[in-house]
From TrEMBL:
Phosphoenolpyruvate binds at residues 48, 84, 206-207, 217. It catalyses: L-histidyl-[protein] + phosphoenolpyruvate = N(pros)-phospho-L-histidyl-[protein] + pyruvate. Residues 5-291 form the PEP-utilising enzyme C-terminal domain. The chain holds residues 254 to 576 of 576 of the full protein. One of its GO terms (molecular function) is phosphoenolpyruvate-protein phosphotransferase activity. It comes from the Bacteria. Its EC number is 2.7.3.9. Mg(2+) binds at residues 183, 207. Belongs to the PEP-utilizing enzyme family. The lineage of its organism: Bacteria, Pseudomonadati, Bacteroidota, Cytophagia, Cytophagales. This is Phosphoenolpyruvate-protein phosphotransferase. GO terms for biological process: phosphoenolpyruvate-dependent sugar phosphotransferase system.
Amino acid sequence: QTDALKALRDVPAATTDGCTIQLVANISDAGDMEQVLENGGEGVGLLRSELLFMGRDSFPTEDEQFDFYKKVALEAGNRPVTIRTIDIGGDKELPYFGLPQEQNPFLGYRAIRFSLDRKDLFLVQLRAIIRAGVFGDLRMMFPMISNIREVREAKAVLAEAKKELLKEGIAFDQEMQVGIMIEIPSAAVTADILAKEVDFFSIGTNDLIQYTLAVDRMNEKVSALYDPFNPAVIRLIAQVIAQGQKNNIHVAMCGELAADPMATSLLLGMGLREFSMSAVSIPGIKQRIMDLSLSGAEAMYQKISEMDSSEDIRAFLSGYPNA
Ligand code: PEP
Ligand code: MG
């Protein structure tokens, strides 16, 4: 690690006009925490829990899951950690579970759809997460939400988990914050409705771009169409952030766009205040934020919101590297 990186590690990510931004990390294991702290991450915005379920031949028990989440909580100290419930399916397979081959796996049986279909397994994961919440500042988040019914059903399973643990006399975090990923266009469009059901949003741009533009995120052939600066994507993101503010809930972004320095001013200008990314991207984005002013970023977003094409937006953003 260079001295410059170390010096950057302990300063807050603040704009030149004093707006402080939360920079947190995406991780998949407790062992990743060391790298998060080394890079100045202030917590974890996305723990992808899939690793816990992969590379084995049966579903992990509640205690196995509890141990995993507890370890993450302890490694994080008192820093916040957002645990995403299982996001299996799509690009993430689970061999022992015999998930069916699908024509369109990204549009199929994945994430919360799987969890709500297998509430027996979902309940186990939720019990393990809230039990581990006793050991740190854990939050929980549901992936691939497309409508309010899914949120309510997931919360009902959470209520069931709490009721059971209470009856069994097992300690758990009674007040854990619950959030959802905004990564399907229907969720972005109805952010005002969904905001009333949850404590926070995290925008998953990897999937949001894929679904908004109908571009398979894994397919090289169409990767040129996979465009975060398409005005449709920008409008959806802006709308989610605005609805979060209006409804007083926290909004973060955990998709790759959060780590793109070209997008930083635009996202700040829209009102985003929490960015979650791979640990190694944090210092670069922090440096970028420290070079920007919030007022400049807001002016930039105003101009961009009136532009017609990704080409114009990109040209504008790259023409003003310090705006
Ligand atoms: C996303 O879709 O942006 C996201 C963060 O989730 P994943 O990449 O795990 O699908
Ligand atoms: Mg996703």
